[in-house]
Amino acid sequence: MIEEVADLRIQPGQQQAFEAAVHKGATTVISNAKGFLGYSVSRSIETPERYLLRIQWASLEDHTVGFRESPLFKQWRAIVGPFFTAPPAVEHFTVVDKPAQ
Amino acid sequence: MIEEVADLRIQPGQQQAFEAAVHKGATTVISNAKGFLGYSVSRSIETPERYLLRIQWASLEDHTVGFRESPLFKQWRAIVGPFFTAPPAVEHFTVVDKPAQ
What we know:
The first copy, chain A, is of the alpha+beta class.
């Protein structure tokens, strides 16, 4: 399992509409992709136009090839793309330490 | 509950030592702070010197005041600070969407 972390900047004042859009896009589009395991969305307290979208995938290629090269990617971007003020900054992460809590 | 997200850059080749240090610092120092709820550490696949350290706190002030102004902060920085090649980029986040999976 790997985690995609997308650092997103959206138009000021559009938080409520963006949060509804990303929920719709994640639950009706991305969730249909092979290897999709789950997601979460967090809003920055210091920078209210900044969000972190995290998506858990079974493998790196499930995101970079399977999803990005599928029609689902265009559907997703059509829903959330209009809110972005900059291209999303995306990297993928491996959890190296997460003690049981 | 809020989440501190620290975006960390460390010296090349020091991954193994850093991961041991951050585990030690989190479990023996930060875990003693009031309001500490848990943490995780992830390493970037594209940028192996980049880590995201996430710490869950009961409140924003538990981190920004309670922890940062306590002796624990200096103890923590003594353990992990030597690995950093840049000041950590830290913001705090509120989860706005995390469906049950």
